[in-house]
């Protein structure tokens, strides 16, 4: 009930269950299931999210930012992680070494993961020698939002209207749609076309090095060259598309863990204002959710399921049939 809402004001907590394979088309990952729809590497491809009991959810709004919000029923605490460590949930959008630019669709109902499209073409990042695709597991922290109407005091630029990005530097290659728990180590500020685009540096708590990596300096010592490669990647990844190098705030220097956590907290506050409609400028973002009691965009489980079924039906239609449905208001 609403009286039991935690800091993220979730109405209910998802119980921890063992990861298992559901079917070729329904994978269960940690607390959540992913349901792919459409053909991969096509404009119609979407990955929808469901809770462990099969209820349709938004990975943007319904997955808690703080992992502690869903640890009450945890069987065993993470190995070798400090008890006072703040852990965050991360939604993996792009697996390491892959090139397709996958992202949470913030402007679609239920906010599935889709491949970004620009000028009618699917987006892929180029291989920048000596790198292959994305050099980390790349994704976002749920329940965060970089407010485009807020000018950051440090970067002097507004937010980019997206959840805050995460570069997970562990050794495991994750899967698109996987929800993992991460420990924050630092942060980098990319200035992308005049907008602040924070890049959180984090480590999967299941990684063998997680207990040894506790700061950005630890990364510098234990993974020599990794931070320099990250700066180089973000500076140059758009150059093959004919664009100039990106600019980085703070002279391309990483800020420490404490700074990063404060940035995350601020973007969490911006998100709260968005979904509670205290912040009116959302630039087309869909705030539909199934768990936020005080949000005017909260929908019932049945309504969320109906949204998914309607979207699935539209995907099966031919282009002229979709146009007819759109004209009829379906």
TrEMBL record:
Any single GO BP term: phosphate-containing compound metabolic process
A single cellular component GO annotation: cytoplasm
InterPro entries: Pyrophosphatase, Pyrophosphatase_sf
Domain of life assignment: Eukaryota
CDD domains from the UniProt entry: pyrophosphatase
Pfam families named among the record's database cross-references: Pyrophosphatase (PF00719)
EC number: 3.6.1.1
SUPFAM superfamilies referenced in this protein's UniProt entry, alphabetically: Inorganic pyrophosphatase (SSF50324)
Keyword annotations: Acetylation, Hydrolase, Magnesium, Metal-binding
Single GO MF descriptor: inorganic diphosphate phosphatase activity
Enzyme class: hydrolase
Cofactor(s) annotated in UniProt: Mg(2+)
Subunit structure: Homodimer.
Family: Belongs to the PPase family.
Protein name: inorganic diphosphatase
Protein's gene: LOC113108173
């Amino acid at each position: 009930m609403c009286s039991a809402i935690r800091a993220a004001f979730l109405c209910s907590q998802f119980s921890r269950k063992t990861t298992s394979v559901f079917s070729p088309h329904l994978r269960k990952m940690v607390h959540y299931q992913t349901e792919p729809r459409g053909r991969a590497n096509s404009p119609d491809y979407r990955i929808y999210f469901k809770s462990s009991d099969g209820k349709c959810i938004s990975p943007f709004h319904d997955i808690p930012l703080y992992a502690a919000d869903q640890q009450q029923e945890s069987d065993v605490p993470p190995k070798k992680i400090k008890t006072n460590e703040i852990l965050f949930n991360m939604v993996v959008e792009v697996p390491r070494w892959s090139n397709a630019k996958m992202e949470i669709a913030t402007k679609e109902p239920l906010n599935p993961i889709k491949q970004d499209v620009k000028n009618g073409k699917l987006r892929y990042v180029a291989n920048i020698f000596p790198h292959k695709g994305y050099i980390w597991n790349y994704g976002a922290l749920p329940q965060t939002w970089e407010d485009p109407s807020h000018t950051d005091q440090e970067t002097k630029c507004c937010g980019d209207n997206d959840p805050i990005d995460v570069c997970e530097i562990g050794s495991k290659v994750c899967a698109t749609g996987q929800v993992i728990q991460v420990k924050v180590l630092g942060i980098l500020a990319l200035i992308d076309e005049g907008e602040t685009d924070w890049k959180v540096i984090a480590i999967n708590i299941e990684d063998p090095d997680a207990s040894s990596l506790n700061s950005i300096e630890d990364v510098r010592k234990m993974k020599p060259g990794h931070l320099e490669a990250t700066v180089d990647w973000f500076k140059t990844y758009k150059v093959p598309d004919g664009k100039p190098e990106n600019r980085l705030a703070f002279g391309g220097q990483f800020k420490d863990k404490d700074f990063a956590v404060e940035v995350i907290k601020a973007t969490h506050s911006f998100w709260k204002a968005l979904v509670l409609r205290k912040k009116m400028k959302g630039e087309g973002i869909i705030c539909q959710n199934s768990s936020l009691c005080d949000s005017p965009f909260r929908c019932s489980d049945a309504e969320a399921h109906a949204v998914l079924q309607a979207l699935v039906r539209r995907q099966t239609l031919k282009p002229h049939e979709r146009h007819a449905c759109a004209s009829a208001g379906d």
